[in-house]
Every structure is written in C-alpha cells, then in structure tokens.
Fold this protein.
Amino acid sequence: MSDQVPILELKGVNKGFGPVQVLKDVDLSIYPGQVTSLVGDNGAGKSTLVKGIAGIYPFDSGEYLFEGKPVHVSEPRQANALGIEVVYQDLALCDNLDVVHNMFLGREQSRGIVLDEITMERRAKETLAGLSVRTLKSVRQQVSSLSGGQRQTVAIARAVLWNSKVVILDEPTAALGVAQTEQVLNLVRRLADSGLAVIIISHNMNDVLRVSDNVACLYLGNMAAQVQAQHLSHGQIVELITTGRSGDMGLHPEVLNGTTV
Amino acid sequence: MSTQTTDVDVPEAGDTGGIGNALRDYSRRVRGGDVGSLPAVLGLIALVALFSILEGDTFFTALNFANLLNQGTAIIVLAMGLVFVLLLGEIDLSAGFAAGTSAAVLGVTLTNKGWAWPLALLAALITGLVIGFFIGVLVARLGIPSFVVTLAAFLGLQGIMLLIIGEGGTIPIQSDVLLAVMNKNMPVWGGWLLWLIVVGGYALISLRAIMRRKAIGLAGSSTSVWLAKVVSLGVLLGVAVYLLNMQRQVIRPGRQTCVEQGLINKPVGCIPVIQGVPWAVVVILVLLVIGTFVLGRTAYGRHIYAVGGNSEAARRAGISVSAIKISSFMICSFMAAIAGVLLASRDNSVSPTTGGAQTLLFAVGAAVIGGTSLFGGRGRVIDAVIGGLVVAVIANGLPLVTQQSGIQFVVTGGVLLVAASVDAISRKRTSAG
C-alpha cells in the first residue's frame, strides 16, 4: 500500500473543543480504489475526524494533503469542490421527493429557469447503472416508498454523482437487515473497485473485515494503527479498539500511559 | 450481485403502458397513501349530484354556476397562496386580513387619494408583499412558530385595516377596470378562445414532454393516456364554458331580452343578456399556470418541497432554508392581496369585514380538502382550485337546502375535518410504506 500515492493524507492533525483534546497528532492515508475502515470506540474521535475532513469542524493544526498538495478545508463547500462527499447516518433524504430529485437536491440542472428533468433522470440512471444498482424499480419512485437499503443506495449514488473522488460513509449498515447489509456492502466494494477512495465508519467487525482494504483504528483521539485488513483478525481489531494495542501493533506504551493518566 | 427476491430490474426504456397500466399505477399510488386530489374530486361530484337532486331547479342552473364561481374566486386565490406556506409545514392565519388590509390600501389610494387604478393596485400588492416579508422574517430568522406569528398578525392586521379605513367606514371602489374583474364576463367567442388556449396548450406541452422523453429513450406515459387526459380535460372545460355562455338571466313569459328587442345599447324595459365566462376565471387560470410552473418546474419550487419534506436535508444540500421560508410567506400574502382586490371588486367596496369572517378558514379548508398536506411537503396549486370549488359548492348549495346557518357551519367544519383526517391517514400510510 505504500507504493501508491494517497489521494487524501492527514499529517499530525489536532482538534480540540475547549479544554477537551479530541484528536491528537492523527495521521491518516486514504488511497484511491481502496476501502478504508475507520474504527474506534464511542468517543474515540471518528466523527470529529470525518467532520474535519468534510470541513464541518476544521482541524486546529496539522497538514491536510489532497492529491499530494496541501489544501485548506474549512467549509463543506470546499470539501465538495475537491470531490469529497459524505453520506451521513441519517442519509438526509427528502421522503416526499423522488429518487432523481433527491440525487440532484440543491444542485438541480436547469435550462434557463426550467428544471431539466430529462438530463437529470438520464444522469441519475447512468450513475445507478454504473454502480450496478438493480434494486430500484423506478427512479421516479418517491423515497418514502423505498426500503432502508434502497435509501442508503440512493444516498451513496448521490455522493457519487458529482465525480467525487473520496466518499465517506457514516455507519452505512447500522440500521439494515441482513440482505440489505449485503447489498450495501457489495455497493461499497464496487465503489472502490471503480477507483474511488472510500472511508467507512463502522462498528460491525464482520463488515469491516469483509469490505476493507485497510483499517484505521482510533483510540482516545490517537491513531492507534492503520493496517492492511488482510493482516488483521477480528480479535486484533477489537483489541486495538479497546486497548489501543495488539501485539506489536498500536500505540507505544508511553503514549498509552500518557493518555490514560 | 444480490439475488434477493425483492430485487426488480430497472424496466427497459419505452412506454409505461397504456391506459389500463396508468389506471393500475394510479390505484397503487392511492392505496399507498398518495391520494392527492382524489377525495376532493369525488366529494365535488357527490356534492353537485346531491344538491342537484335536492334543489335542482335553483342549484343546477347557469346563473347559479356563475354565482358559485364568483363566490369561490377569492377563496381559491387565497388558498393558492396558502399552498406555498402549507408545503413548508407552516400556516398563515393572517392571510384573510392580509387580503382585507391590501384591499383597504387599494380603496384609500384609489378613492380617497384619487390615484390611477394601476398605481392603487400596485400599492395593494406591495402591501401584501410587505406583510409576508415581516411574517416570514419572524418565522424563519427568530424561529417563532408560524401559528403564533400569524395569529398575532391576524389581530394586528385587523386593527391596521380599521385604522386605514377609519371606524365603521366603507370605501366604494370607483374603477371600471377593477370592478369588471368580478362583475363582467368575456364575450361568448372569448370563452371558446380561452377553452382552445387552455386545452390546446395543455395538449401541446404534455405531448412535447412525452416526445422529448421518447427521443432520449426514457420511459414516458403512452400517447393513449395522453389522449385520454386531453379529451377529458376538453370535455370537462367545454361543458363549463358552454354552461357559462348560456343566457343566465331568467326570462319570464311575456318579456323579451334586449337582444330580441334590438336594445343592446340602451337596455331599458327589457331583460339584459348576461352570459359568458367571468373574467375572474381568467385570473384564476393565470395564477394556476404560474403557480404550477413555479412549484413543478423550477429549482425554487423543488426547494420548497425539499424544505417541507426534510428541512435538515435541504440545509445540508446547500439550500437556504430561511430564504425559502421568507419568500413563501411573501408569496402567500401577495396572493392574499390579489384575493383582497378580488373581494373589493366583487363587493364594489372595501369594508372592515373584507377578508374577515370565515374567509381564511374556508381558504385553509379549500387547500386541505384539495389534497395539500398540513404536515408539509405535499400539495399542488390545483388542489386549491379543486378544494375551493368544493367549499364554494357547499357554501352555495347548502343555503338552498336549509336556511339554518348553524347547519352550514357544522357541515363545512365537518368537511374540513374529513379532509384533515384523509391527510393524516394517508401520511401514516406513506410513512409506513
């Protein structure tokens, strides 16, 4: 993995809210064509890290490199312009609008002042076909009539629609049944296979091991380890999440002591 | 690829099927909770049938049909404006008195100050926009519930209206143009021309949309469905125009109409000819077309639905939620101002009761009966027209059956409750689906 150039790289980023230091000198490398799982216990700083990448809470210090160049991201708009899209856990879909309308929400295509429904529908279909999505009966269906997995699919497709390069998924399978989880994980895998960099936040170790190329584990605001998934077992991930160490992987004991004091 | 049984392949491009398919699709949508205007249309048919059976001699006449439209016009326009606010899940209780206040401004500037009618009209419409702006800012920026803001405006505007008109006064409207809107009719040929423009325009625009979709390989409705829609619209509106073009004045035996006596220019001692489509219908049609276009075909309209459906999702998508809210309240009060002008035109004057009494409740009822959801996110401008007709039929037909105003209030309230229940039940269904 080190022979590739990361599309997104964080070096020693810090973020604090008042007296609480949430992220401490965190490094992270995200590669195109790979799924990187971001794991960690509640309060480890996963959400803060993602929100920092997305520009919602800008980092206090540290380097933010995109395609090798240092960039400044302090607003969601700037992250979007770089090609970074986030799919939040609540999906942020409008139930009363159909699939096409949701995918283009806020970025509607118009001819003059008239909405260009035909172009939007065609592009939506192309994007869904490109993701090999066959679970939607019609792109003119209202989102309220979709299942949880289909909604997740629509939200992911919306993120992909804009020639994005990095897609961040926050707990994409948390509320889904077995079959739908399977669908969404397949979709996540296809996203990476088509060359996108995917970051996925998950609490489900089986999901993590199934789709990830590498795993980044946060422990109390420190990056405990970023390891290739094939070198990890279920137990090792759990150990990293709960103690910050597993064998020779993870944080140095001094760091651990420092954080626990 | 998952092989789950619920997976259905994306259908191939082409027709979505003929009329049978379209009907099946529609019935599936209705069962799924997306009832739209269906209850209102059925209710309208049932009410017209009921009143025709009970009081056919007076209810189902050309004169009464025109009267009914005349009574319903202001409510329909008011309801059209309310649709924009209801779509956001908000309410505007002050719209009735926004109409009254705008009408008062019209009366004072036109009659007391002697302004030309276009200037007075402009002043009235601007009054509406200003009222809407203040309500919108209070709701969107300060976050006060619209119920409270507009309740305050309901009282406040009532007072402002009294102050403008002066205690107990009634201001006559002296402008032939403004009075003509609610009191004059189009010539017979004008009615048919209007019919041709509306039906032909609808046919051409919808056919063009189908053709464009076909050309690009997207599924669209078939031409048989299109033809069925155009023909039913043509027949429906054709009957309406035909009825309105009939001589409405009751001709008693032994008297002749002015036409028969050749006295068109000096109608003395004969029965004047009253026929033709009221000009008010043109006002409604124009507002309907503009409103439908804005809500259905522009990004702005799409954003209104988005804010009504999930304002947090809209905000994250980069939509300015407060700008949408403020502008929607402005549109609502602007439409109320138009309704106020129509009321003034109908009554030939402005009084402190203009826009008061049940005007607002009838308008809210019209929008909801027509199928606009009180929970936001669902509704169309045409709902206001259909619902407004239902309200007008009740308000017009019931007094023919019973003179007791108590019964009339009870029935109207009951119909509104039924409409709100349909709304609530269909909402449960869609969220369960």
Summary: The mean pLDDT of chain A is 86. Chain A has two domains: 1-83+165-261, 94-164. The domain at 1-83+165-261 of chain A is CATH 3.40.50.300 (Rossmann fold). The first helix of chain A runs from residue 46 to 54.
